[in-house]
User: Fold this.
Amino acid sequence: MTCAACAARIERVLNRMPDVEAAVNFAAERASVGLAGGTTPSQVIEAIRDAGFSVPSQRVELVLGGMTCAACAARIEKVLNRLAGVQATVNFASETASVQFTPGLADVQSAIDAVVAAGYQASIVHATTREDEKQRRIARWRAEFRRFVISAILTAPLIAQMPAMFVGGAHDLVPRMLQLALATPVQFWIGARFYEGAWKSLRGGSANMDVLVALGTSMAYLWSTVVTLGGRHDLHVYFEASATIITLVLLGKLLEARAKARAGEAIEALLRLQPQTARIERDGQVVEVPVAQLRNGDVFLVRPGDAFPVDGLVVDGESGANESMLTGESMPVSKRIGDKVFAATLNGAGLLRCRATGVGESTLLAGIIRMVSQAQGSKAPVQRLADRIAAIFVPAVCAIALLTFAVWWSLSGFEAALVNAVAVLVIACPCALGLAVPTAIMVGTGRGAAAGVLVKNAEALERAEHVRVLAVDKTGTLTLGRPVVHDVVVMQRDAAEILRVAASLEQGSAHPLGLAIVERAKQDGLILSVPADFQAVAGGGVRGTIDCVGYVLGSPRFMRDNSIAIDDATLEPLARAGMSLVVLGGIDPPGALGVLAIADALRPGAREAVARLRRGGVRVVMLTGDNRETARAVAAEAGIEEFEAEVLPGDKASRVVALNSGGGLVGMAGDGINDAPALAAADVSFAIGGGSDVAVEAADMTLVKSDLGGVADAIDLSRATLSKIRQNLFFAFVYNALGIPLAALGMLNPVIAGAAMAMSSVSVVSNSLLLRRWRPGGR
Assistant:
């Protein structure tokens, strides 16, 4: 909605529907709709869309409890996606669900209720719940550890007789009644979590890892109990198998939980960065208050060595700031009056007075935490295969176990059939499949955030690996984005007058070249006039009247389009020197009055970044609106062989699409509002850190550092993460592809199978943790 008329139109459309009473609040941008008859919320939303408006979806993150394996995650995801207007993804590794819903069709409470009805727990994630959930997980881990210790003590005598069994010795070194007494609490007290999880899963119409463990250990325990109480000393008992499997699986879960916590440490580390208190000025006094009480406009003091509590602007003092926790760059950044400071970064040796400009959820740190959390909760396309397999894994394993039991019973009798069927059940592990992708994504995005590479979603991280062509904008991406007027070439009148008229026309401009012209005029003390009949032409220049005289200001091409002749001999030396040229022309009579030569220095690391991208197999192409000679000079300085000059902002997107014809994915790196369409058109887009909000919103990845080297880091991170994902998936698939047949063929003892299952998921998570060794800069 753009005005009250839009609100009135929506209200009329809705109230024309049968049995609908609607009131639209333009100020709040909300509609209150009452439904009395057969009209459904879906029809109301469709009517709003048909009227040319939309009902924006909302996103919420839920923290989940009660999941034991990937099948549980698949079950919750299925339940949530059954709700009308809901799209959800569940991350087993982080135990969270990212839920996007359409207001009117669903709400947060309906999503939580659906999860609870499926037998799990859910609550909304925010700052307090993160800490509460962390404490609950610590307490739960300690309780599970105590259970494991008790289980291990009870199981130890049973395990002690196993070496003798393997070498053909006696099977009953421990009396059978004592074995029963030791195994019973392990089976039904320590193992109660598996029965509970299996019951919830089966009640919800699915099967998970708990079903396999409960079924396999119960078979071994019940057989052994019947043999023991029946006094059948001619038959073997398998108390050691049932108890040891439960103990080993519990150990595996403890190690897995510890490893998963380490995988998610990136967000924890970011949350720990922000100080809890701030020193602010109130009524002439400096007082210390909780950071949560700060408001925009408050003036706060930061002592040497202290962390900045919120985002702000320096109003007094001079110092340096260590921003490595946000950008990965260890060199201090100079801070003077008017400079930005960011929450959680460290002040250097000076005392600074700052005015708060971003507090609470509006700080750069909070934005980074949101983006990292969103990326870790998203799913990469490579995970879809693992999800499909996990969804049918447990029923398939149960079928294989049943077949194994039937075949072995017919060939070798009941006891051999029981042992081998139990081995099949306990070696199968859907957890390794479920953890293979999300743990690598969690560690990869966390390492990226620490290095100043913020990934919007897992799909972008996966695609970045395949970028073969990178289109880069010149101004602000390859160059510093701080152009200065280097020279004024006079054709008519004098330099001061040409600069004054040009600056008067550019007063309202946000373009870097326009800002440079205005800044130079202010430095020279020139008095500017207000333009009349002003007109801006995108990608070309401006027209206007200054002191009753008409002028045209813009690129050489724009001059030619306006029938104003320019002497190329004047322009070429400046262009070859890498200057951006802005020409001032008169309209009546038409003619060029002067040329402003504007220089924008190349970023210090641009040439090295381009060389690194090329070594990595990425073709770099520069796109710029500058003339060809200027573009050639800048490209040569940056080490770029391919460039396209005089590209209008509206044409950048089509040029990016055209680059895709050579195969491989096309990336785009830019920082300005005029880069947003090209960023959206690219397969993978990178917003340079100092860029506009529009560019950042359109990009798949945001580089906190204003450095093209961040693109090379992002691609390198993508390759490292995808390499780990492939290793994890290979291990998970091969483990099950080898383990299940070996167990079915009678080549694995159930205890060995249980140990292998317990360690499979731990090994996958541990392999993902090796990503923490990744460092930016190709180091």
